[in-house]
Write a structure and sequence with these properties.
Elements: H1 2-32, H2 61-72, E1 75-80, E2 83-88, H3 91-100, H4 131-144, H5 147-152, H6 154-174, E3 178-179, H7 180-197, H8 206-228, H9 242-270, H10 280-289, H11 299-330, H12 332-346, H13 361-373, E4 379-383, E5 388-390, E6 393-395, E7 400-404, H14 405-408, H15 461-478, E8 479-483, E9 506-511
Parallel strand pairs: 2-7
Antiparallel strand pairs: 1-2, 3-9, 4-7, 5-6, 8-9
This protein binds protoporphyrin IX containing FE.
InterPro entries: Cyt_P450 (IPR001128), Cyt_P450_CS (IPR017972), Cyt_P450_E_grp-I (IPR002401), Cyt_P450_sf (IPR036396), Plant_metabolite_P450s (IPR051103)
Family: Belongs to the cytochrome P450 family.
Membrane topology: Single-pass membrane protein
């Protein structure tokens, strides 16, 4: 009897609870979160539990995101395992991020490998927008990477370019294939090492080679660890030990940098010869000692900053030059047009040099077109500081934002025949009228963003352009190129965040002009 009476009570009580819950729910929905005025989240493809949208992307991330944007729009939300972000894919939304709401998107998030970086907290490239970053950026733009400082090192860049041509000539003489990937990375690494810390001043020529190897290791390992980012909390287990390997490589760099700094300090004690130019390390050490500097920088900051310059500057420029050569080899008409231009401007007696570049519009157009199709940093990463509305959708504070410049620069709404290699479009005479011809690589034209834009844009763009024009010009001026296996260079895109070539560019050079 007692059992029956409790059942009788249970059902009405359950009904009352259920109806109350429904009422409270609809009250909250109606009054506390009014759906009509609520700014919607960016659109997002249907996600699977745990993996999110991982099943929708291939290893070539910028291309996968470009395809998804075709269906979900220029601002979409993507979740890869434990990490989520919004992806921007056209010029209009890129302008909102880089210009209209610039301050709100001027920080970068901590990413993948940051926790293994021994200099965590003083890194420049991944620094939050704030006093330290502002101070260092100003130093870059006014001194370290400013045109007068770059001009002081013209001879160094020229010597490294000559070494490149000599090394390729050697391949010709020996009938061996030339690994342009390795040759061009040596060029950019040596150039930056000499401009940054005059490696020769250590009296040890192997320093540049050691730095090249360490940077290669750091870039490879941080790339792999960034993929581990997707595992979220599991990444702390560091299954493959990449984090520890990265730490070991960084500690090795730290010891090397300590030694080179000590040598610079000893040189400075002896008193710099007035005619001796200051390299980046000399300037940084001066700033470190300056009691009037707005921000006090430490030795750790200096080592970290130089590492950033190496990591941001070597592979980016080298990858872009490989793409330029690959494109030119596969487009013989463009190759011939460029060689004719160089021959007519430079003449038959010497190698092309930096000061020729203003008179070589087709060379400039080739490099710009290459960066349009193959930006070395195809996914520019920023972080949102405060909740805001972008393209009609809410972007919450702390959201990671990836601007897919690969997609922006191939958008058919902005470019005619966007996937074709057509350097002519960058000539003044072109019908396409790219627009601000002088400004476009400085990121003031939001459909052309190889170097990003705004205060967070690349401070190394001028240096990269100087090195790339002279090197690509020389390789076209001096050599014909025969593809190793077959008629055409394999121009497949590589995997990951940086869209390098899937396979290193290895070709047979045939000497056409010997400047030595
Ligand atoms: C073809 C060559 C290069 C390309 C395509 C490239 C591209 C980029 C891009 C897209 C960014 C992010 C910009 C943004 O967030 O808006 C960046 C940042 C940066 N780049 Fe470059 N870069 C190149 C060469 C260089 C060189 C040669 C250096 C230095 C020697 C350099 C140093 C940096 C630094 C330090 C940053 C971080 C700036 C900041 O966070 O404020 N880059 N680069």
């Amino acid at each position: 009897m007692a059992i029956i009476s409790s059942d009788i009570l249970y059902y009405p009580l359950f009904l009352i609870w259920f109806i109350t819950a429904l009422l409270v729910h609809s009250f909250i929905k109606r009054f506390l979160k009014p759906s009509r005025t609520r700014v919607p989240d960016p659109p997002s493809p249907p996600a699977l539990p745990f993996v999110g949208h991982l099943h929708l992307v291939s290893s070539v991330l910028p291309k996968s995101f470009q395809a998804l944007a075709g269906r979900y729009g220029p601002l979409m939300q993507i979740r890869l395992g434990a990490s989520s972000c919004v992806v921007v894919s056209n010029a209009t939304v890129a302008k909102e991020i880089f210009k209209t709401q610039e301050l709100n998107f001027s920080s970068r998030p901590e990413f993948g490998s940051s926790e293994y970086f021994i200099y965590r907290g003083s890194r420049f490239v991944l620094a939050q927008y704030g006093d330290y970053w502002r101070f260092m950026k100003k130093l870059c733009m006014t001194r370290l990477l400013a045109v007068p400082q770059l001009d002081l090192f013209t001879d160094i860049r020229d010597q490294e370019k000559v070494k490149l041509v000599e090394s390729v000539m050697k391949c010709c003489k020996e009938g061996k294939p030339c690994d342009l990937s390795s040759e061009l990375t040596t060029l950019t690494n040596n150039t930056i090492c000499r401009m940054a810390m005059s490696t020769r001043c250590s009296g040890n020529d192997n320093d540049a080679a050691e730095i090249k190897e360490l940077i290669r290791t750091c870039l490879q390992l941080s790339g792999k660890i960034s993929v581990g980012d997707v595992l979220g909390p599991l990444k702390i287990l560091d299954f493959s030990g990449n984090g520890q390997k990265l730490k070991a490589a960084l500690l090795k760099y730290d010891r090397l940098a300590d030694r080179i700094i000590k040598e610079h300090q000893e040189e400075a004690m002896k008193g710099l010869d007035k005619n001796q130019r200051k390299d980046l390390l000399d300037i940084l050490l001066e700033v470190c000692k300056d009691p009037t500097a707005e921000v006090k920088i430490s030795m750790k900051d200096i080592k970290s900053f130089l590492l950033d310059i190496f990591m941001a500057g070597t592979d980016t420029s080298s990858a872009a030059m490989q793409w330029a050569m690959g494109k030119l080899i596969n487009h013989p008409k463009a190759f011939q047009k460029l060689r004719d231009e160089i021959n007519s401007v430079v003449g038959p007696n010497r190698l092309v040099k930096e000061s020729d570049v203003p008179n070589l519009p087709y060379l400039r157009a080739v490099v710009r077109e290459t960066l349009r199709l193959h930006p070395s940093a195809p996914l520019i990463i920023r972080e949102c500081a405060e909740d805001c509305k972008v393209n009609g959708f809410i972007v919450k504070a702390k959201t990671r934002v990836l601007v897919n410049v690969f997609a922006v620069m191939r958008d058919p709404d902005s470019w005619t025949n966007p996937n074709e290699f057509d350097p002519e479009r960058f000539l003044e005479s072109s019908d396409e009228r790219i627009g601000e011809h002088q400004m476009e690589f400085k990121g003031q034209n939001f459909r052309y963003l190889p170097f990003g834009s705004g205060r967070r844009g690349c401070p190394g763009a001028s240096l990269a352009m100087l090195v790339m024009h002279a090197a690509v010009g020389s390789l076209v001026q001096c050599f014909d190129w025969k593809v190793k296996d077959g008629e055409k260079v394999d121009l497949s895109l590589g995997s990951g965040f940086a869209s390098e070539m899937a396979r290193p560019l290895v070709c047979y050079p045939i000497a056409r002009f010997n400047p030595f």
